[in-house]
Design goal:
Blueprint (H helix, E strand, L loop, with lengths): L1 H9 L2 H8 L3 H7 L8 H10 L16
């Protein structure tokens, strides 16, 4: 979450918060070390920065 917070800062935290529909202070708390964001909040924040969550199968590595 702290790394995501750094990305949000680079995108201007106030703009990200507004676009995600959350208060700036709430966004800072959500993206702190102790933050525990809901999935829909995290999704909104990521979308505000042009990012998304992707889930991929964990396939075994193929020997080379």
């Amino acid at each position: 979450l702290v790394a995501l917070r750094n990305v949000a800062k680079a995108h201007q935290m106030a703009k990200v918060a507004k676009s995600a529909g959350v208060a700036r202070e709430s966004l800072y708390n959500t993206l702190s070390r102790g933050g525990n964001p809901r999935l829909n909040t995290l999704d909104s924040v990521l979308k505000a920065m042009g990012l998304k969550i992707a889930v991929e199968p964990d396939l075994p590595e193929q020997p080379t």
